[in-house]
Amino acid sequence: MSRRLEVDVAIVGGGTAACAAAVALRRAGLTVAVLEKRRCGAGASGVNFGGVRRQGRDLRELPLANRSRGLWDGLNELLGVDVEFDVSGHIKLARSETDLEELERYRLAARDHDLELTMLGANAVHAELPWLGEKVLGASLSPTDGQANPRVVGPAFARLARRMGAEIFEFTPVEAVASTGSGFEVAAGDLTVVSRRLINAAGAGGRLVAATFGEDVPLTPLSPNMLVTEPLPYFVSRSIGVCGGDVYVRQTRRGNAIFGGGRGWQDHDLGLARPSSEQSVDGIRRTLMLVPDLARANVIRTWSGFDGEMPDHIPVIGHSSTTPGLIHAFGFSGHGFQLGPAIGEILAELVIDGHTPTPIEPFAIDRFRDWSPEASSAPDASVHTEH
Amino acid sequence: MTDASVSPSRPLFRRLVERTGATIRFFIDGRPAEARAGDLLITAILTNRSDLRRFEFADGHRAGFCLMGACQDCWVDLADGRSVRSCSTLVEDGMHVLVDGRVNG
Amino acid sequence: MNAPFAPRVVVVGAGPAGLRATEVLAEAGLRPVLIDEAPRSGGQIYRRPPVGAERPATDLYGFEAGKAVALHDLLGRLGDRVDHRSATLVWAIEGRRLSLLGPEGPSVLDFDALVLATGAMDRVLPFPGWTLPGVFTLGAAQIALKAQGVAIGSKVALVGAGPLLPLVTRQYAKAGAEVALSLDATPFLPKLLHGPSMLASPSTLLKGLWYMAANAASGVPQRFGATGLRVEGDGRVEALVWRDGRGRDHRVACDAVGASFGLRSEIQLADLAGCRMEFDELTRQWRPIRTSEGRSTAPDVWLAGDGATIGGADVAELAGTRTALALLADRGIAVDTTRIARLDAALARQRRFRVAVEKAYPFPRALLDGLADDLMLCRCEGVTVGALRAAATTRGADEMNRLKAFTRIGMGRCQGRVCGQAAAEILAATLDRPIAEVGRLRGNPPVKPIPIGAFAGAFATEGERA
Question: What is the ipTM of this complex?
Fold first, then answer.
């Protein structure tokens, strides 16, 4: 029972950015097909920490993050579901003089990118977070950042896209993509999608799609390792990070404290990303030093998932350097959740107008043109990225 | 038997086998209570009252459910900051259990 | 210490299956590690009271006292030929490494072969009032009596859908508890129809009949085929309401209810160990795939007892012995083939009996019909049946893990142990699809809550070989 479908735009991958792009493209009247190998929003979009954060990002990402932040306020209304967006603020703690200098430098630079941060002295931080277990010398506060429930955002964009007429195919792993000269042909089992344009939003699988078009990039798989406690009395009033990025913790309004603990592992036999107990224990210890009150709580669940990481920790976004009509958006390196809604709009602009008012030059795929898999070693996996 | 007065202060569990072991003195919300050596904490509490803890997400209380460490319904808070699963923890002399919070006196 | 090249075999669970497996492995000189959450061995069915609450075995286990005592004495007899780690939770498995949390804190332990004998818990179905203080599982009612010498209430209603009901009723009545009603959610007729098949294990049949007769003689009301269960009360249990086969409602005053509907395998560790699962139509639950000798689909992971297939304590003992013998043979250690043949014959007989039991006590699916939207389904997170149905019909939750992501069903402290099966039934009914198609909740560590404070200190790693 083979099926052939012709659309304006085929999207490989069904994460938040992909489904948000489908929504924006449908709004412009284009026909869209989304091909997702498992469930929409169940990959990196759904298993991350849930930080809706601008502070601490690579400065080159701030224009994207600012644009997305404007969209987050309207997501409940747009999607018709409570995404649990809580503008708790994000606070980044300095545990050394070097950290403090880093925060101040970042604050000044971020100001030029329309992100206003407030420096807090040691007394102010300890007054606001009196339960902190480590002596901090100061912190930087981003009052308009926050947190949300990652499990609901991507699937809600997928539902909206479908309601607006996009064709959403789940459990439909793409087996082959090819340029036909006038467009693309995407093969997934019995389904063939023929499109004028192709968006590669395949997350960890984005490298394979890019490589098909002669644009291999040094993306490595990244599996987060997340822990959550039983509900506790509400006390972690801010989403919290530290300089160095090795501890991050937030608390939902229901009371569950969520924190990160290193990396999970990939169980290739079962095709699942699994949490690592060893990394969980390390994460527990690091978090416990900062939040000693968690000692009285229980971890009730840990989880992992699939993302892809670039060696420079910023994504690949933009037109292909080899193939007209192909647009990339992948490699969000563990911090794409906040960006998803804006990436969707930007992808639609790239399809429709060929360009976007948001500066995306730093994310061009040709920054890796001199890289080849034979000549390079794997990127340094020990670098902590904030979530 | 007296009429069933619907009160959390009326015990839920009923002892069928009287044991001769030591009396354990502990506290529920600051009020002294008694149990027997060999009592699990759930037994100690529910022979004194009808529930163990507040339910976090709505009105009402819980009193445990499976008694074999599987359902996780019977976690109780202790005044020392620990929380323990009362079906797999023995009551100890001087334990302070918090059900509805600390009661002065 | 282990001999230089002896494999490290770890048995998880010190119930009938785990103890018998341990016995075989110890007698072969392997010095197995036996890990169990309880402070004392025995498992749930032969659970021992804590120190200070002991009573004579005949009071606690009735007809089964001999079996219980034999199992309880087993570790004492084997002495230091077994490395018994009590009060220890296996909270994660990755590859060949177990993460443990015991009295001395956390540690990890590597294994060469693993026997999972994780047992079962009560199968639970929600009904109005089921989260009120005073409503327990039937198994809980039994444990309260056995381990603590208490009844769950002063006037107790017991509800079941399996052979546990007449037994607990008998135990309560005998111990002097007031049993207001013993209510079977399955009809009486299948018990007559399938009774002859139960002759495959006549002693079990006779015991069941004897309990029912003794209950009748002691004046405990026993009823069958109940539907429309409801517990009423303001802050605690005041009455049980049920509907009989003719559609009439009955109300029984009581202050506690012990209710559950058969058994459910504890499969979380098998899941983490990478064992593939299959759906069993007879019991309508997922279970790890297991050969008759106990081999799972994961290399060097073996399964025995109710944690793999519900069969009861006698089967668990046989399966524990059989599985350990298969493990030994697999390691090239000589085993007594006559003994294996005898065990296989006994297990085959028991399997026929088990099918008859499941048919005599069919899954009371009707209890899930027409549940109100405001009924709490996930008791950990407080999620209602209505939220499940809404997620299924308006948000595309067509599978258990998607349902969990959208609604938090199964996301709480128990990780779906309690509500998972009912949620799958209701999801399947809402979508009008076969239950096997809605899948099962994927397991993630920790299999039970782990206290963060326990991880502050030092950490031991065992089993890294030179």
Answer: 0.93
